[in-house]
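Residues and backbone
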Amino acid sequence: MLRLLDLTLRSPAENLALDEALLLAHDRALQSNLEPTECLRFWESSIHFVTLGVSAKLLEDVEVKACARDGVPILRRASGGGTVLEGPGSLNYTLVLSIDQRSELRDVTRSYRIILGCVARAIGVEGARQHGTSDLALGGVKFSGNAQKRTRRAILHHGTLLWSFDLGLIPRYLREPEKQPDYRARRPHSEFVRNLDLPVDELKRRIAAAWGAEAEAVTSPIPDLEALLSMKYQNRGWIERF
């Protein structure tokens, strides 16, 4: 059984930091011979922000002047993948899973296939399936991007699910990426992304049920985020390093 954590913190930086902190807490439990807890987390930001993949290039991917003019924060996450715009109407889901207990996830390509297959089946929309390495799409139009960060014994898999997002904002703040999956076929943002026609509470319910995730009777403490915020998520040097 997975621990279910439906929790949005105050700022985008704190929310990104918590995703990584949950992975690190899982690893510390393993090192201390404690029983680690796999986790499914949901969160959704009340403000728009841009998040770069760990190796994404800021000036290639982001309309920096537009973000500055409109007060849209630019952050960098710990996982790979492309640059995305997030905010209201974009549900984030986070899975922290044990590679020790789930050896089938050790291979990266296979892990995406397994996890995205489970999420697609949980959503229950006919035609929703994996496209490229890390996307979910319906009729070839993307509604979910995903990325991973790994330690030796655990995996952080997180993604977005667009359900009521203002899609017109994407080209305002993001440039067309140079690196694209083949199935995109050089389509602009306006032709490549869509919302799912499902309410957010139903999305959460279906995904939690598919993963057997349940809320704890007694809430566990949230990992301390101060060090991660200082080193990464509030550190302009780290955010703007590429």
The mean pLDDT is 95. The two ends are 39 Å apart (CA to CA). DSSP finds nine helices and eleven strands in the chain.
